[in-house]
Each structure stands twice: as structure tokens, then as C-alpha cells.
Amino acid sequence: MESPDPAADSSPPESGDGPPTPEPPDPPEGYREPVAFEYPAVWLSVGSLVLFVAAYLGFGRLMGALRADTALEFTVGPTGIGVVALLSVGTIVVHELVHGLVYRLLGYRVQYGLALNMGAAYAAAFGQFQTRWDNLRVGLTPLVAFTVVLTPLLAGPLVVALAAFLVLVVNTGGAIGDLYLSWRILRMPEGTLLYDIDARHSYVYYPEA
């Protein structure tokens, strides 16, 4: 999804000395040659850290404002650390399942896995042309759904509030890739199509007109 200049070089990247780069399909009628899309891994890592800190501070202040407790003091022992780890992993799994559910509701076939090049889990519709608006729905639904459902729980019993707080922080910090993709999509012209070959190779097809 290499944005928004359709006149940019649209030839597939050179494979170099590594394995050959998979070729994207020919463009549909009325579309330009595909342009490779890449996530800026370093900047997304920095952005994820910033989002994580912002979510920690923001949801923490909100939880304090919603609760009657004058102070939130608690101790996390070995069991608590295990619970934190399980909740964190569970958040990532459910986040991707929500992506996949939206894909399925929109009529796509879904595959799940780990993208080691990005250090992230994924739910993807490989080998299928996807509209920009479908991608936007898929990308933003987990962030919106988790935030809407879990934020009211910050006012609940302490154990529930802390669990909701952790999930909100992990989910928000982990949504940096979704937010980046959504930002790029919103800058693309109407009618743009996206195509994922695999977890490492994605392309954008801009309309000719």
C-alpha cells in the first residue's frame, strides 16, 4: 500500500540474492500496475511504545477518576505475573480473531499466523483483492470494540478494573500497525484495491482515473 503517488515506480522490488519475490497478479481492468507496500518496522516499534505509554497514563487516570478508591495500591506476586502474561497473550489472540471475524463477515477467506518480520500476529486475507473500506473496517474494529466494551469496566470491582485496564493498554499499544494502515488507506484514492500475497509481500492497486 505504498501510497498516494500513483505515478511512482510501480515495478515489483528486486529479489536480490535472497529467495525470489512472489509476483503480484496482473491489475484488474482500469487499474495501474501494483505498488509494493511495506510497514516501517522501526517507526512502528517507536509508535507502539508511545501508544503503550499514552494508554497506560490515559486509562490509568480514567480508572482513578471513575473509581471511589482514594488510591490504587496492590501487589503483584508470581501468580499475578502469570495472570498478566495470560491476559496479554489472550488480548493479542482475541484482537486477531476480531480482525478475522470482520474479514469473514465481509466475505473473505482468512488465515492466521505470526509475521516474524514484523514481530506480530496477523489475520489476513491472502490472495484476494480487498477494497480500501473493507481494510479500514477490519483494521479499526478491534481497537474500537475493545475500547467501547472494556472502558466502563474500569469503574467495576478492583480485579475486574485491573484486568480491563491491562487489556486496554495491551490492545491499544498493539494497534499501531492497524492505525498506520488506516492512515495510509484514508490517503488513497477511492476505488483503490489492496492485495496481500503473504505476510511479507503486500501491494496496492491504484485506479487509472
Automatic annotation (TrEMBL):
Give the superkingdom in one word.
Answer: Archaea
Instruction: Look up keyword Membrane and say if it applies.
Output: yes
Positions of transmembrane segments: 41-59, 71-94, 106-126
Positions with biased composition (Low complexity): 1-18
* Record keyword Transcription regulation present: no
Start and end residues of each stretch annotated as Disordered: 1-31
Q: Which Pfam families match?
A: DUF3267
Entry keyword set: Membrane, Transmembrane, Transmembrane helix
Q: Where is the composition biased (Pro residues)?
A: 19-28
Q: Which InterPro entries is this protein grouped with?
A: DUF3267
Its protein name is DUF3267 domain-containing protein
| Species for this entry | Halorussus limi
